[in-house]
Specification:
The protein is α+β, with helices and mostly antiparallel strands. The model has no long low-confidence stretch (mean pLDDT about 85). Strands 1-2 form a two-stranded parallel sheet. The chain has one domain. This is NB-ARC domain-containing protein. Pfam families: NB-ARC. InterPro entries: NB-ARC (IPR002182), P-loop_NTPase (IPR027417).
C-alpha cells in the first residue's frame, strides 16, 4: 500500500482492490470501476454482466495513464 500511495501523483487514474475468497470477478470489476470512473460520469451498466463491467472499465481507462493494484494476500506467515 505504501508503494501505491507513493505513486498516486503519477497516475491520475488508479485503483487499489483487495481480492477476497472465494474470488468474485464481478466484485473486483465493480470495485475497480468505482475507483476509476470519472466523477459525474453515468455508469449505466448491469452490475451482474461481466462483459458490461469489463467494457465500462475499458472505456474509463482508454487513453489514460493508470495504475491498478490487485491485492490477493489472504494470510501471512512469519
Amino acid at each position: 500500500m505504501a508503494v501505491y500511495r507513493g505513486l498516486e501523483g503519477r497516475f491520475p487514474c488508479r485503483a487499489f482492490v483487495t481480492v477476497s475468497r472465494p474470488f468474485d470477478i464481478k466484485r473486483v470489476l465493480r470495485d475497480i470501476l468505482q475507483q476509476v470512473i470519472a466523477t459525474g460520469s453515468s455508469s449505466m451498466v448491469d452490475p451482474d454482466l461481466v462483459s458490461q463491467l469489463v467494457g465500462k472499465v475499458r472505456e474509463n481507462l482508454q487513453g489514460k495513464r493508470y495504475l491498478i493494484v490487485i491485492d490477493d494476500l489472504w494470510e501471512t506467515s512469519a
